Amino acid sequence: MLDFTWGDDAFPLRFTAADDGPVLASVTTGVDAVEPRRPEQRARPALVEVLAVGEGRGLGSMRAIRTAIGDRLRLVEHRAASAGGRSTLTLVQRDERTGLVVTTRIERFAGTAAYRVSSVLENRGAAPVLLQQVTSGTFIGLTGHLGDAVGVDLWTARSEWCAENRWSSTALGGTAGLADIDAALHGHFARGSIALTGHSTWPSGEWVPVAVLEHRDSGRALAWEVEHNGPWRWELDTLFDPAEALALALLGPTDVDHGWLHRLEPGGSFSTVPASIALAEGGFAGAIGQLTEHRRRSHLDVHADTARPLVFNDYMNALMGDPTTEKLLPLIDAAASVGAEVFCIDAGWYDDGGDWWPSVGAWEPSTVRFGERGLPGVLQVIRDRGMTPGLWVEPEVVGVRSPVARTLPEEAFMHRAGVRIVEHDRYFLDLRSPAARAHLDAVFDRLIGEYGARYFKWDYNVTPGSGPDADAASPGDGLLGHARALLTWVVDLRRRHPGVVLEACSSGAQRMDSATLARFDLQSTTDQQDARRYAAIAAAAPAAMPPEMAGDWAYPQSEWSDERIAFTLVTGLSGRLYLSGNLDRLDERQLGLVREATAAYPEVVRHHARALPSWPLGLPAWDAPQVALATASAAQTLAFVWNRQEDATSVALAFPALRGREIEVQTVFPTALPVWPTSWDAATGVLTVDLTGAGEAARVLRLRLR
């Protein structure tokens, strides 16, 4: 019999295993659930659930839990270790029938109540095992931690091009939640489930791979994320005992959802994708705060972007993929004049035919866009103006009009049933291929070594569906191999070129997963060109990434009012200010507003890097009249407030952490425009902002203790 706790003092995990059962992992320590009378109808799932062809489930359903192999796993050993501020717990289990040995690793950084889990399956049997899905981790004890299921809300975020990070809640006790079937009457656990999936190589193209359970009364919360740059699934499953009402299963690709089947040969091994959970008081923001610290400490140990330089990119509401020397030179001067430290030339710099989309792949400079200077001459102008040159790339694809589509060997491309996969005039490199990796090595070595690019906006605008089936048991298996090869290649690129900064971008933020973010320096949060709509995207972005990584575009235009220019600049400052727009057309008064924002940026982004996010108006609805984000450190709270309602009169912002304290409020930006009057109610922790006559406008406010 196994029964012990491990992890954070306030929110440890509990591990139990009967002599005749698998290891169970609980997020609470005090619940011992009642089970159905018949042992084979046990409701609670194993820590690792393994679905395989010829094995199936112990009880029929479409859920990830109660698999036959998962039921048969038995503990071999467990051990704990700690070093360098990181603790690890390793549990080894074995299934005697198949010979599978499952080694699960759970890790936690000191001072956090967040846990990363992954497992390695080794086939020590005599026959292949055809894997259909494997949970990275499965957890019980959810209602023991949160409170009764009827009081729990599930928060999820829809996401799509130009409309990322749209959070909403579902009451688990409501009609869209999980039904109470009176499991005790039936003597059988329920089979209800709420599940979400991400598909192909846009893991946040439909849903952000992050979710939160929050109890409305207790204020306790549980957050999780699947850390994979490809397909994923998570599910909430109903159980038997109301005291142990829910289980959470976290998975990478599956057979039913993603066409994934993996043939695990004798002597072979398979690793699940990692996933993380976080436990907290303080509701949604408390759990995301724990994940934020966990994400920061999980980041690849690279230092090129430590100073977080101010970036100008020529694309958004500016050149829009049509750079030429004549268009770039005035923008370079304008960007330098407002304090930009990096100037990134976006799409089109390689295109001679006037259509940059199908010509990507060779990454050679255009021979017609840059005149006598050529691209090297333009990059030198950027350096002469005191800025670091950057380039847009989309390295994982090759346009159908690119010469590379004909010169690379076939094995460098993704194929399905022997046919090269194509989407929207692009082929896909298969990073499992040495030829594909060698091509990318040569491209980046040339762009860095020959042209001196030190910043890359890394885009990814198409997806290959379920994936390539060459040299794989299934398309999903080939796609998983490619996705992992890509991450390995990025790490190697950063090792070979440690001074290069990488920005993640995938048609905005369609690849906003923690596996990608841990290896890149910042994430473009959207392609949204409407500054008014952008506010909701930017405000919600820190639920998916640390706020200092959220590359929020600000794109001032000469025809805009001062308030509208300030509005877009507040959006930029709410994360990592990412400048664009036709700065060369602004007059001196308008440039003054931009310079005020860029002068504030270094202190603001340093604050973000040690702060945790919260939402004083709740998570923003897409069409909310007012939107607010706060980032709070020990020294101060910065509030980013957008008013999108012309006739608004006031808005009340909740800061529960400051309740009972006296504070002072200052305007950080813009100070040259009218100050918004505020009043503070210490008893309730509410700051009321007077919006009378403000119109559509935005402000950055600083709250400090008196």
From TrEMBL:
Keywords: Glycosidase, Hydrolase. One of its GO terms (molecular function) is alpha-galactosidase activity. The keyword Methyltransferase does not apply. The keyword Transmembrane helix does not apply. SUPFAM superfamilies: (Trans)glycosidases. InterPro entries: Aldolase_TIM, Alpga-gal_N_sf, Alpha-glycosidase_related, GH, Glyco_hydro_36. It comes from the Bacteria. GO terms for biological process: carbohydrate catabolic process. PANTHER family: ALPHA-GALACTOSIDASE C-RELATED, GLYCOSIDASE FAMILY 31. This is Alpha-galactosidase. It comes from Amnibacterium kyonggiense.
